[in-house]
Amino acid sequence: MDITVEYQPTADEVVRAFSQGLRRQLAALYAVLVSVLVAGALVLFVTGNVTMAIALLVSSVLGPLAGNWWLRRRARTQLAFLCVPTTVRVTDDGYECRTDQSTTAMRWSMFSTVVTTPEFWLLFVNKQPAAFLPKSAFDARQQAEIDGFLTARKSVAVGDR
User: What would the pLDDT profile of 130-151 be if each residue is shown by its tens digit?
Assistant: First the structure.
């Protein structure tokens, strides 16, 4: 396999990719945060501090919403360098993204997991999102070739364990 395409990701696309990549970790973090806030609210209700209890309950609802808003805002400002014309090359060995300012190349063996979504291939190293490949950059034949390659690679990796 040797596929090369020219592509320019949008800011929304970059934010969606990173949001999807971080979703598992954020879900666990938000579950803990909400549990602690609700438990604290219950204690405050029992001890008669109703105002603080209500404040904690409101925080348990608004906290995750504010966290998602902050993440999206932060990603938009810090990841703007990704929204430039990019040459993406996908081979049997790995992938490379090249812009006027940078070149990123990673071998498939570096990735512990590749998650396929309708919009992206999300690439993880030790359960941490490391990169993404937008499916929209590739035509249907190229997407099928990459999907087939990643599926075969996943089967080999599972068989090796």
Answer: 888 899 999 999 999 999 998 8
| Nearest-10 crossing angle of helices 11-46, 50-78 | 170
d(CA 43, CA 14) in angstroms, rounded, equals 41
Closest CA to 4 of 105, 84, 96: 96
Q: pTM for the full model?
A: 0.65
Residues 6+ apart with CB under 8 A from 87: 4, 5, 6, 7, 96, 97, 98, 99
| C-alpha radius of gyration, the chain, whole number | 21
Q: Which residues contact 119 (CB under 8 A, 6 or more apart)?
A: 13, 16, 17, 20, 134, 135, 136
Distance CA 81, CA 67 (A): 23
Q: Amino acid identity of 99?
A: T
